[in-house]
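Subject: Predicted fold for Lanthionine synthetase C family protein, 1012 residues

User T.R. writes:
Posting the sequence so we have a shared reference for the thread.
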Amino acid sequence: MSVAETWRYPQNPAHLEWAAFAARVLAGAAGDGAEPGDDRAGVRGLIPVVEPFARAAAEVARWEIGREVGHSIEPGSGGGSELDVDAVAAGFREALAVRLARLAARTLVLELNTARVSGRLGAADAERRFAEFVRAASGRAGLAMLQRRYPVLIRLLAQTCLGRAAALAELVRRFRADRPELVRVLLHGVDPGPLLAVDGFAGDGHRGGRAVAVLRFADAALVYKPRPVGVHRVFNEVAQWCNSRLAPWDLRTLGVVERAGYGWTEFVAPEGTDPDGLDRFYHRHGVLLALLYVLDGTDIHFENVIAHRDHPVLVDVETLFHPRFGRSPDPAAAALAESVYRTMLLPRMVVGDDSVLDISGLGGERAGRWPLAAPDWAGAGTDRMRLVRRPPGFAGAANRPSLAGTKADATKTEAEPGRYAEAVVEGFGAAYDLIQGSQSAWIGPGGLLGRFAEHEVRVLIRDTAAYAVLLDESTHPDLMREEERYHRTFRELREQLGLTVALGEPADDDLADDELAELLAGDIPVFTARPGSADLWSGPGRRRPDALAETGLAAAERRVRALSRADRDRQEWIIRSALAARSPDPPHRFRAGPPAAPPSAAGPKHLLTAARDIGDRLLAQACRAAADERAASEERINWLGLELLADRFPHFGPLGASLGTGYCGVALFLAQLAAVTGDADYARAARQAVRPLPGLLARLADRPDRLAAIGSGAWAGLGGISYGLAHIGALISELEFAEAAILATDLAARAAADETEHGVHGGTAGGLAALLAVHQTTGSAQAWDAATACADRLVTSQVMADQAGAGADHIAPDHPDPAAAASAHATRHQPHHHPEPSDPTPPTGFSHGPAGIGWALTRFADAGGGSRYAEAGLTALRRAVAQHTDAPGTDPSWCRGLAGVALAVADCPRAQTDPDLSGFLAAAVHRVRELPAPADPGLCHGGSGVLELLAAMGESVDGYAGRLLAAAEASDGAPAASPGLLSGLSGLGHGLLRAGFGKLVAPVLLLRLPGG
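User M.O. replies:
I've generated the structure tokens; pasting them so everyone works from the same file.
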């Protein structure tokens, strides 16, 4: 009696089918087992252990297929002109074996190591001992041992086999029934011959192991989707409507064959294009963006787009009309969630410790690594095999266009999307205007939107990656021993992974039950809706009436009615800004400006006018809560813009809390502008911007485990927030902010105790200077004690560095910005390039090198710290000066260049009496004047930073002030300007105020406070 026949015995209750299947698999296993093949990468060396299950599943699938064709199909008999059953079954068996090996790997590796430690493996080397274990485990006795010790694992293996076999048989049945129309509609009438393979059964499944699959023939392919595809058919109709009106940038659509509950689509292979085609490709991306924007599409990541010649082809549109769940209290985050960025077609960054990756429909770079650690196997194929967590490889996708004829060298010929920002914007604008001007065709009875009303769309109630993590972690061998523990731990894992909230609210019991039922079956849970209904359906079919706040159709109609020139301008600014995050230029890179022209008139009046223009732009760009969601007195504002997370990775999104690139720095500039002009609007905006900081600090006080990751630094840490609050509070007389500055001081001190970064930007030197400024303004003893602790840590680090013969300026990368603590979205980042190995050259400049450390220590010594700190500080300054003496360089910037080192010396009275340091300072100022002025007008690596050095030396700043004035005029309407203080509009505004009103406006680069 075959496995298939035993499985189908009618007396077996449905819930025991897996048990009967498993029993027959174990009974039919070979006595001696099998050795692994030559390919032992990852889990492949373990495949012989699970191969009996995969073989039996293929037999079941063959038996089911035989029922469909009306006769049994014996191995080697082919199967007829429609399909090659032998080839299909072999491919299914191979893919399923890999999946089963992943399920069993943790348990098998535990058994492997137990056998090694206990001395049961007697072969001569690690590879042979691994083969010895696999041979024993894959035999009848070994499998019986697994069944006794790990019955849950056996159930999972058996259920996976039966589910995938049934799914394959269902696919073949549907293919045979639909084949004539598939040939006619999707294959242009050309019969492709027998079906040879079905790809897709190694991946995650839904609804009983069903998965999207590619059917392959000798010279053709089709895509099978085990879900309704009506939404894609209607999307094609909408695209064709646009095509007839946007001829130059018509969209290529997928052929679709729609059936009840499932469907088929055309297979589109990636193909290159010519250079002119790249421009057309990105124009069409813009058209797609506009369509997805009005159709409320989301989750259009790199796997859902194929670059076919000069067309970006959408291959999956199941997440159109996606509902909104909750609303962020951050108005910038809320605005972004309502914008074109929601589509995920624009750059969306996954951030790791050392690299980032753009996973958007425009991104998906090839030949890189996934930035986040994932389970992997070290020592695979040896008896030392063990689970590790490290970033896996990332092969890329087929969504990026490349030049035709260069497929073999695709990594070098792929187009960089950031270079085609204007093409994307132009295509978006054309489609946007078309839709806005044809609203009657879109909404109302018979409108384009109404055609979607009854078609199923998918609802992502949470990140589906969390489901996959839970399924993977639930295969721990301890959970494979007992069903009760497995189920109990599953629920605990669900809570630990944060899966208790859905639809913006705590998940109800029915929702949780549906999720757990699908997860326990090994499936990724699925939820669906209909655009014309507010109901929600789960994978098992449970319907929840009115679970959604509004119908997807109503939301889309509201979007179309709200189209306007102002909204289009806003969306185009977001497109440009998001694409700017893909800039290939490394951060903090100095670029020389054009040859100096005669300075413009740069008197205080002109400078103030330019600063006010920037302030007004910031007020206009601020995101605010909807009028019915806030009281004016409690309104919070924030901005969208570019930030450097971890001071390395460009990221577009809501600003975080930091002084350097976040809303704290923007508020500080607005407060300074208010103090100079007396304009209450600027002061009000400053208050509104930092309004969330007291609450954020209170929450961080309850999470001491996060403090070291944030750091005490001046520009990216808690020290800068403390300084910013104290500075703003002093300018606009806000007592609450002064009190919050004291709390930030305490948190900065606690962060400094465990941080490894020492520089001003993100580490202890910045914390020291910021805390000292707060103490000098408030007289807080707590701030002084915290500053002393920071100074002691710096002195210790300097002594240890000297003893080791290395510079303490050789520092670790800065810690992440507090944006990560303030905004849940801060898990994304900059794209393609993975950083090169770290530069062995020690960092220079004020922000990251020993110059800033020495400056902070000598400043503390001058405030009463004593000679011990002065000596350590001067030593650090000499080290910084030596670096520039040995290699003068051509970078005059503040952050990493000559101006920064010189400013640290210029602001240190003790250094003026040191012949070497004072001599360096004079030469440095002369050198800075000789070097080309920076193209960037900002503080960090631009003209405002150089101006601060000249002002500190009493030099004329007219030339640089004129440059800043010209830059301010040129920046009007700049597409991707960041609002931030270090490298954005606020920094330029601060530079203008410093140039015209130096005695009234305290220099933030020196962390001075008013009157300090």
